[in-house]
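REQUEST FORM: STRUCTURE PREDICTION
Request ID: SP-0412
Submitted by: Lab K.M.
Chain count: 1
Length (residues): 377
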Amino acid sequence: MTDRIRNFLRQRRDDEPCVVVDLDIVRDNYTAFERALPDTRVFYAVKANPAPEILELLARLGSSFDCASVAEIEMALAAGAGPERISFGNTIKKERDVAAAFELGVRLFAVDCEAEVDKIARAAPGSQVFCRILCDGAGADWPLSRKFGCAPEMAPNVLEHAHRSGLIAHGVSFHVGSQQANVEAWDTALASAAGIFREMAERGITLSMVNLGGGFPARYLKDMPGVPRYGEAILRGLSNHFGNRIPQTIIEPGRGMVGDAGMIEAEVVLISRKSEAEDEMRWVYLDIGKFNGLAETMDEAIRYPIRTDKDHDRKTPCVLAGPTCDSVDVLYEKEPYELPVSLSIGDKVLIEACGAYTTTYSSIAFNGFKPLRSYVI
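STATUS: Completed
RESULT:
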């Protein structure tokens, strides 16, 4: 917890759960990516946290933006980014949304099939497109599914179709999985991308760009490599697979940009046991749960660091759950958390590394609970 967040929480009078994001950490993270990959353009993944203050800071620093919808494109433009700094990176788009983005000046679009190419050819003629390919996501805490991307061997046909449809076949993209612990995960994907570049050259079409995606981690409970190590591994992979013809590259950090910058303050609502047996585990219920911003506890994939003012006391395992009347609203049960035995109803709990994918996952009013309040300082 930074001193700025600590001072803010000490002074605030609101008792509702909230997330506080420190812009100094966001700035430091952006600088780290620039230094680790100096020839790579940074496209911040807006979906991670679209708070206007974050977008405005990153726009001032020179960041570009990976957007998933027209609404996110409008947010990036409002923050001060020009349309040339925006990618419509969602592979699943309504044709009218492609047209709206084109009208706003966006000229860079993601695809993973010929049907998506056809939409862009009609609604955004002459635009650049890049084809997303599948990755296995090994080594990631939150592997991405087969929902996005095509098999690498299919990508050349998609890109050639784009070229023949009047679009610019710009390059290839992939995502190695969110919260990727393995710095070498990009190597296999880069090998596939290089193969696609070679095949396209044989077809007389020159590709220019590799979108390296996201996957850069936040600091949760497990130790993770720092940004410099990811940069070294990616540069090594580019050199190995592209030789002296290294293409333009972009990255799309979201979690790695803002995750560490945020902290949630929540309150203990109830502590109970399910039986009177002496060894029965405690259930600790908070005023925040899966529907209020902690959706990434699904399957306990993301395990947030949790702190209390009583951490010096003896600890025992407990189940952690949210406040709603939905049985799925259990945060950690398969692998319980160690929390102080002295923890009481009304105590505050601090949940670290919550700057990404919390406010954006918070429901509007499930069970009547308010969305997660956000403060950016």
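NOTES: The two ends are 13 Å apart (CA to CA).
Reviewed by: T.R.
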